[in-house]
């Protein structure tokens, strides 16, 4: 059997997961940066299972220091903080928490879509600041219904966003690693072609090396001065410096962002802009969904300990 001293918690995982790991599994907690290397030298070889989050995963260095690692259980659908390439090569299994958070993340995308085009957060600030009471009118916004919307990454979350957008009478386009059979939306061969064709680009692609800076300055230029961008995926998918420049120079109309390149850092220039909606990576952040993510994470761990098989492995 695998015992608690062979199970390693990496990083500050969800509090409910942390409590179960401690109480039920007597799991080991990876020490902080200062003691980490000395600890790993002494104990790294005994670790067989790691539990981590999508924010702080089992990165390349850490994985090398765990030579007998067999499985990684990741809280979150995104696992870009873990070195999947090395895991794959070494035959280390990896699970994530798909499906259970799809609806909440898609809801967040719709919130950002409406907020960004209609200026709701800026309008709320306008009321609270007393500007409305002083007799001024809030500037007119942009219509959200009937737009052309491009989804970058038509996976589970991208599809759930598309389902919601249909209620807004939108014309839906997409670009994905591959064209989806049976998808009723117009496919574009590149992110740039997609951006050229739409009013709003919604980023729903998985993070990691394959999608890094997929939205670069040329894609933003293709989106154009009346175009908006929404990102609920990973900050790494957009060239953040290029995005800041485009927003400052108004070569795009606005952005709604739940994710950033170096969270929790938000580029200070964005804090000054009223055409940008900024959220603290809350896409899956509801009581219900986090409870479901916790259950699925623990079920994966239990299943590995019992049968050496994960329930929702990355294939
Ligand atoms: C999580 C997420 O909050 O699932 C993901 O990929 O980004 C979020 O749902 C985060 O990863 C948890 O660490």
TrEMBL record:
<feature type="domain" description="D-isomer specific 2-hydroxyacid dehydrogenase catalytic">
    <location>
        <begin position="16"/>
        <end position="312"/>
    </location>
</feature>
<dbReference type="InterPro" id="IPR050223">
    <property type="entry name" value="D-isomer_2-hydroxyacid_DH"/>
</dbReference>
<keyword id="KW-0520">NAD</keyword>
<dbReference type="InterPro" id="IPR036291">
    <property type="entry name" value="NAD(P)-bd_dom_sf"/>
</dbReference>
<feature type="domain" description="D-isomer specific 2-hydroxyacid dehydrogenase NAD-binding">
    <location>
        <begin position="110"/>
        <end position="283"/>
    </location>
</feature>
<dbReference type="InterPro" id="IPR006140">
    <property type="entry name" value="D-isomer_DH_NAD-bd"/>
</dbReference>
<dbReference type="Pfam" id="PF00389">
    <property type="entry name" value="2-Hacid_dh"/>
</dbReference>
<keyword id="KW-0560">Oxidoreductase</keyword>
<protein>
    <submittedName>
        <fullName>2-hydroxyacid dehydrogenase</fullName>
    </submittedName>
</protein>
<dbReference type="InterPro" id="IPR029752">
    <property type="entry name" value="D-isomer_DH_CS1"/>
</dbReference>
<dbReference type="InterPro" id="IPR006139">
    <property type="entry name" value="D-isomer_2_OHA_DH_cat_dom"/>
</dbReference>
<comment type="similarity">
    <text>Belongs to the D-isomer specific 2-hydroxyacid dehydrogenase family.</text>
</comment>
<dbReference type="Pfam" id="PF02826">
    <property type="entry name" value="2-Hacid_dh_C"/>
</dbReference>
């Amino acid at each position: 059997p695998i015992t608690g001293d062979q199970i390693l918690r990496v990083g500050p995982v969800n509090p409910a997961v942390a409590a179960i790991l401690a109480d039920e599994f007597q799991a080991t907690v990876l020490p902080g940066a200062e003691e980490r290397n000395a600890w790993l030298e002494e104990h790294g070889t005994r670790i067989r299972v790691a539990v981590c989050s999508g924010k702080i995963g089992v990165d390349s260095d850490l994985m090398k220091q765990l030579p007998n690692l067999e499985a990684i259980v990741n809280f979150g659908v995104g696992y870009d903080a873990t070195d999947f390439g090395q895991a794959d090569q070494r035959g280390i299994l990896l699970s994530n928490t798909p499906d259970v958070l799809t609806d909440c993340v898609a809801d967040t995308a719709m919130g950002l879509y409406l907020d960004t085009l209609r200026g709701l957060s800026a309008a709320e600030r306008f009321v609270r600041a007393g500007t409305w009471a002083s007799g001024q009118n809030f500037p007119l916004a942009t219509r959200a219904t009937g737009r052309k919307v491009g989804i970058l990454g038509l996976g589970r979350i991208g599809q759930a966003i598309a389902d919601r957008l249909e209620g807004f009478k939108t014309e839906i386009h997409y670009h994905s690693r591959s064209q989806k059979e049976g998808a009723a939306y117009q496919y574009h061969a590149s992110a740039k072609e997609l951006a050229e064709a739409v009013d709003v680009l919604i980023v729903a692609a998985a993070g990691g090396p394959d999608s890094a800076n997929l939205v670069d300055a040329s894609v933003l230029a293709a989106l154009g001065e009346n175009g908006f961008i929404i990102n609920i995926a990973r900050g790494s998918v957009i060239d953040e410096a290029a995005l800041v420049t485009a927003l400052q120079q108004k070569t795009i109309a606005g952005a709604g962002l739940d994710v950033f390149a170096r969270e929790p850092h938000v580029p200070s220039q964005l804090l000054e802009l009223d055409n940008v909606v900024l959220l603290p990576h809350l896409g899956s952040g509801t009581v219900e969904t986090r409870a479901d993510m916790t259950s699925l994470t623990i079920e994966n761990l239990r299943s590995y300990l019992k049968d050496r098989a994960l329930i929702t492995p990355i294939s």
